[in-house]
UniProtKB/TrEMBL annotation:
Major location category of this protein: cytoplasm
GO MF term set: ATP binding; UDP-N-acetylmuramoylalanine-D-glutamate ligase activity
Family of the protein in this entry: Belongs to the MurCDEF family.
Any one GO CC term of the record: cytoplasm
Biological process according to GO: cell division; cell wall organization; peptidoglycan biosynthetic process; regulation of cell shape
Pathway: Cell wall biogenesis; peptidoglycan biosynthesis
Domain Mur ligase C-terminal residues, every copy: 315-428
Protein name as annotated: UDP-N-acetylmuramoylalanine--D-glutamate ligase
Protein's cellular compartments: Cytoplasm
EC number, UniProt record: 6.3.2.9
Amino acid sequence: MFKSSLVQKKVVILGGGESGTGAAILAKSKGFGVFLSDRGLLNQKYIDVLNSENIPFEQGSHSESRILESDLVIKSPGIPDTVALIVALKEKGIPVISEIEFASRYTTAKLIAITGSNGKTTTTLLTYHLLKNAGLNVGLAGNIGDSFAWQVAEKQFDYYVLEISSFQLDNIQDFHPKIAVLLNITPDHLDRYGYNFQNYIDSKFNIVQNQTSEDHFIFFEDSEVITAELLKRIINAQKVKISLANKLTEGAYLDEGKLVSNVGNSTFEQTFAALPIKGPHNAINALAAIAVAQLVGVSAEKIAEGLKSFTNAPHRLEEVEVIDNVTYINDSKATNVDSVFYALGSFERPVVLIAGGVDKGNDYSQIETLVRNKVKALIVLSKDFEKLETYFSGIVPQIYITQDVQDAVNKAQEWSVPGDIVLLSPACASFDLFKNYEDRGDKFKAAVRNLTSQNHH
């Protein structure tokens, strides 16, 4: 029997969600021998795809011996580098990379990569919208939407706008964005980084490691963490600054309510209040998106048009209803304290805050002043309520504890008066009472809509 001398390289994919399944499809299309392994159970949608593509897979456990025979491993961002299997692979010298690294090897599209502890989804969606609205052939991927690898296998784009998490950046080698955006770095996910903030900072800065002087690095200059880090590093890319505090001759900034961006030989100005997104953090997000659009040559006219027609993702400061002149806001995506800091900073009116969930080692001191000044009542929606209750008793006049979302919303309605904001901004993960933050947000919205119907009877 004739056997080719070109042995099919064996690629193992760990994790069979959106990114893992996409990586499997791309690997198969490039002629690799592919095996996918997930310790958990796969979603039926992905089982059907793998079967139709004849890609062998296992679920419920990992066949270690088979995995340790591979030439390359692509791992899901959810799997820490510290688990025994990954350690064993590295000891054997088998490269372990992320899906974004793998996909980037097979596309000639220009990559725009956006990271930061907060605001990256909004910035990614807005950047994508500005480029698409201007008629560019652009894909959206990364930590959002459809798998990057899957799109590389099946579509042809000139640009990709990628939302990139630190977990994805931990396992890159040659990943090379033409434009990299770093919005902010605040302590988050420290459980994954040995409770060492510097490890997390290093991970975020991986985004620039392969950039050259032909590329651009957009960053938020007002972040002390970022500016301190820049003093320690040599960055090859051309730097583009964003600021809310300083007027910049080159860069993008907020000046008395106006977004001004002098980037890539063009100037853009727009009143921030005219945009559909509100709050100081969204000024940063908008400036970053505008700067990217200017760098890829989008006209000022098209940028202005795109900014006006943008709609943000659900569960991020999403207005649900106004009932009896009280505005109900769903910010379920706020799974860390920093997001809540931004949320509270977006409102001038008194707030009834609904918070709580699985605490990832939160430090509530960073929102203490805002809470003292703005929050008239705190409703803790959680099984794990002691820490929040203890911290804020004496700071917030009234606190109520519940494990039921409808009960929480009913209490918020009882405690609010016309002109108030009822804000779900949990500061915590959702797994104690909900499937995920989307589920939490959806149940909150349903509970709010129940209020309206009660009023009509």
